[in-house]
Structure to design on (332 residues):
């Protein structure tokens, strides 16, 4: 039997942060051997959040993300890396799915409620975004979607959409499930530990996050400024930790491949200053080699474009077959 199919993606909407790494990219690397992996750069999704983005900035950011995927260890000879907009089947299947997705289900999505609450004028793209995501996943007969905690609800919706389509039109789609890591599934903002670390907040609040490509001095400065509380020492009881301290221990656990409790045992009793030093050391030692590899990879645009073209061809082959199946089921 062929290996189970995996698909996941990141939006090229800004600099990738350490949350994207521990919630997504870091998990992906570990799946390369046992799964047939498709990793997408979801540039069509990025159009919903980067209001002023032009096609050219999105395209150049897509190359940034591709180089970062490879720098993180996603070897293009062992995974299919591609840009969403280069495989037009995504948009096409999305429409077919949109026609049977209940409006109420989309309006109930936590991410939509959060983002639409922040502004007066909301584009329809923000609402129907999870249907495009469902198309991304279903096109590849995906069984497992490795994502951070924030995406759980969207994967559930994808299952619902697929299940309903199969029930009405006959077996067409494979039902996917989310795989969320035990630690690092939801890294919080360093400036506000009640809010998820995100690319969009990173643009507005400079102390919000650490980029995967941040220099050592920036990493140390940002961690040193991370919000903690009025205490001095790390409590041994996890229940007693404030959100900021808990987040730092969670980051340490994720980067050092420990469970939360193991990481907490390691730092319990330390001063917050020492904790921050330990966390910064851990981030630096993982991200430094990524940064070095990235510089070389990003400099060779011809090679990046070759990787992406090759990926788009492989992805199209699968996507075309699935779209045809859906069209046939619908009788169009
Ligand atoms: P962002 O919200 O930063 O723009 P994306 O929507 O592009 O990120 O998500 C890319 C992947 O990174 C998804 O799998 C998402 O669940 C994961 N992710 C995003 N933010 C975090 C976070 N703060 N902690 C853990 N995983 C995250």
């Amino acid at each position: 039997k062929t290996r189970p199919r995996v698909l996941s993606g990141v939006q090229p909407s800004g600099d990738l942060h350490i949350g994207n790494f521990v919630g997504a990219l870091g998990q992906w690397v570990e799946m390369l051997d046992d799964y047939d992996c498709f990793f997408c750069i979801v540039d069509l999704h990025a159009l919903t959040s980067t209001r002023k983005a032009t096609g050219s900035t999105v395209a150049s950011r897509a190359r940034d993300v591709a180089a970062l995927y490879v720098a993180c260890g996603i070897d293009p000879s062992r995974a299919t890396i591609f840009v969403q907009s280069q495989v037009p089947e995504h948009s096409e299947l999305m429409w077919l799915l949109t026609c049977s997705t209940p409006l109420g289900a989309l309006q109930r999505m936590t991410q939509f409620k959060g983002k639409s609450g922040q502004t007066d004028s909301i584009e329809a793209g923000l609402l129907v975004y999870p249907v495009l995501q469902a198309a991304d996943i279903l096109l590849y007969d995906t069984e497992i979607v490795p994502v951070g905690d924030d995406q759980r609800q969207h994967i559930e919706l994808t299952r619902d959409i697929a299940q309903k389509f199969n029930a009405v039109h006959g077996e067409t789609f494979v039902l996917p499930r989310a795989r969320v890591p035990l630690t690092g599934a939801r890294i919080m903002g360093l400036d506000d530990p009640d809010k998820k670390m995100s690319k969009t907040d990173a643009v507005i609040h400079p102390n919000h996050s650490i980029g995967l490509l941040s220099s050592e001095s920036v990493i140390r400065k940002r961690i040193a400024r991370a919000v903690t509380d009025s205490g001095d020492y790390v409590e041994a009881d996890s229940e007693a930790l404030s959100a900021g301290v808990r987040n730092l221990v969670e980051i340490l656990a994720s980067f050092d491949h420990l469970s939360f409790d193991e990481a907490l045992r390691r730092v319990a009793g330390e001063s917050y200053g020492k904790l921050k030093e330990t966390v910064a050391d851990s981030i630096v030692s993982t991200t430094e080699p990524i940064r070095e590899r990235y510089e070389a990879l990003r400099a060779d645009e011809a090679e990046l474009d070759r990787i992406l073209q090759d990926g788009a061809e492989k992805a199209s082959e699968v996507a075309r077959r699935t779209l045809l199946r859906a069209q046939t089921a619908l009788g169009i």
